C-alpha cells in the first residue's frame, strides 16, 4: 500500500464528521492554486477542505495573468498618441481593414528560404505556426461573435501566404534531406572505394615486401652456399698443399737419408779399401796384351758372329 493511500485511509478514519461537507469543485485553466507539500503520514493535520465558488464562464470573465501564454494567440494593438492600454485592451480580437492593409505582406519564397540556416528555418516555422494559430483564433472569434461584414473577417489570402510559406519550408528541408542523403551515399561510396584501395595497396605492399624478403633470403642463402663452397674448396686446396708439402718434406728427408747413407757407405768403402791396401801392399799392374793383327781380328769377329747365334739357344 502506498503512502498516499495510507494517508487517505487515516484521514477518513479520524474525520468522519467532515465527510458530508466535502464537495467537488470545478477548477479553471486560468485559476492559480497554491499546492503545499504533503506532510508525512504520521503528522497529517485534520483541517477542513477549502471550498471555492464555481465560476460561470458563460456569464463572467475568468481572471488571468497579463503575461499568460494564451495572449500570444491574439494580435497586440498599437496604442494611439496619449492612449494607455491595459489588460485585454492591449489585444485585438478582430482586425480592421486599415490594420490589415498596413501590416499585411507576402509569403516567403523558396529561393529566400534556401539561404536560411536550420536555426532560422526552425524559428521561422514557429513564427508562422503562431501566425496561423492567431488567424485561426480570429476566425473562430468572428464566427462566435457573428460578424457578417467580410472586411472584418479573416482574409483567406493571408492564411494562404502563411500555409504556403510553411509548405515551402518543408520543401526546402526536404531538398536538404535529399541532398544530405545523396551526399551521404556519395561519401559512403567514396569511403568504400578508399577502403578498398587502401586494402589493395596494403595487400600489394605486403606481397611486395614478402617477395623482397624471399629474394633477400634466397640471395643470402646463395651467398652462404657460395661462401661455404669457397671455404670447402680453399680447405681442399690447403689440404692438398699440406699433403704436397708433407710429401716434399718426406722426399727431401728420404733423399737426404739416402745421400747420407750413400756417403756413409762410400766413406766405409773408402776406409775398407784403404785398410786393404795398407794390409796387402801396392798392387802390381798387369802387362798389356800384344796387339792383334788384322787377320786375327777378322777371324775373331767371324767366330763371334757364328757362335753367338747358338750360344743363346744352348743356354736356353
From TrEMBL:
GO terms for molecular function: structural constituent of ribosome. Residues 302-316 have a biased composition (Low complexity). Residues 204-242 form a coiled coil. It comes from the Eukaryota. GO terms for biological process: mitochondrial translation. Transmembrane segments: none annotated. Its main location: mitochondrion. Residues 275-286 have a biased composition (Basic and acidic residues). Residues 272-316 are annotated as: Disordered. Pfam families: MRP-L47. GO terms for cellular component: mitochondrial large ribosomal subunit. Belongs to the universal ribosomal protein uL29 family. This is Large ribosomal subunit protein uL29m. It comes from Leucocoprinus birnbaumii. The lineage of its organism: Eukaryota, Fungi, Dikarya, Basidiomycota, Agaricomycotina.
Amino acid at each position: 500500500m502506498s503512502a498516499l493511500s495510507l494517508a487517505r485511509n487515516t484521514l477518513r478514519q479520524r474525520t468522519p464528521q467532515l465527510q458530508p461537507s466535502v464537495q467537488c469543485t470545478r477548477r479553471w485553466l486560468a485559476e492559480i492554486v497554491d499546492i503545499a507539500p504533503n506532510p508525512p503520514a504520521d503528522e497529517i493535520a485534520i483541517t477542513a477542505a477549502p471550498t471555492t465558488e464555481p465560476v460561470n464562464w458563460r456569464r463572467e470573465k475568468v481572471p488571468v495573468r497579463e503575461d499568460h501564454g494564451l495572449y500570444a494567440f491574439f494580435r497586440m494593438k498599437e496604442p494611439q498618441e496619449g492612449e494607455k492600454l491595459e489588460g485585454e485592451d492591449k489585444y485585438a480580437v478582430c482586425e480592421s481593414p486599415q490594420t490589415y492593409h498596413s501590416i499585411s505582406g507576402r509569403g516567403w519564397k523558396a529561393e529566400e528560404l534556401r539561404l536560411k540556416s536550420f536555426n532560422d528555418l526552425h524559428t521561422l516555422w514557429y513564427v508562422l505556426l503562431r501566425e496561423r494559430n492567431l488567424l485561426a483564433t480570429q476566425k473562430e472569434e468572428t464566427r462566435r461573435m457573428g460578424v457578417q461584414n467580410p472586411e472584418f473577417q479573416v482574409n483567406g489570402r493571408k492564411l494562404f501566404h502563411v500555409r504556403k510559406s510553411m509548405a515551402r519550408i518543408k520543401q526546402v528541408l526536404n531538398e536538404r534531406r535529399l541532398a544530405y542523403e545523396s551526399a551521404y551515399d556519395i561519401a559512403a561510396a567514396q569511403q568504400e572505394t578508399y577502403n578498398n584501395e587502401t586494402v589493395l595497396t596494403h595487400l600489394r605492399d605486403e606481397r611486395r615486401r614478402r617477395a623482397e624478403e624471399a629474394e633477400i633470403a634466397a640471395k643470402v642463402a646463395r651467398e652462404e652456399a657460395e661462401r661455404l663452397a669457397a671455404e670447402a674448396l680453399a680447405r681442399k686446396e690447403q689440404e692438398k698443399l699440406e699433403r704436397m708439402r708433407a710429401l716434399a718434406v718426406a722426399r727431401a728427408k728420404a733423399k737426404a737419408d739416402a745421400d747420407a747413407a750413400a756417403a756413409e757407405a762410400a766413406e766405409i768403402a773408402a776406409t775398407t779399401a784403404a785398410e786393404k791396401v795398407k794390409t796387402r801392399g801396392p798392387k802390381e799392374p798387369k802387362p798389356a796384351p800384344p796387339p792383334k793383327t788384322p787377320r786375327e781380328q777378322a777371324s775373331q769377329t767371324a767366330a763371334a758372329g757364328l757362335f753367338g747365334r747358338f750360344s743363346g739357344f744352348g743356354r736356353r
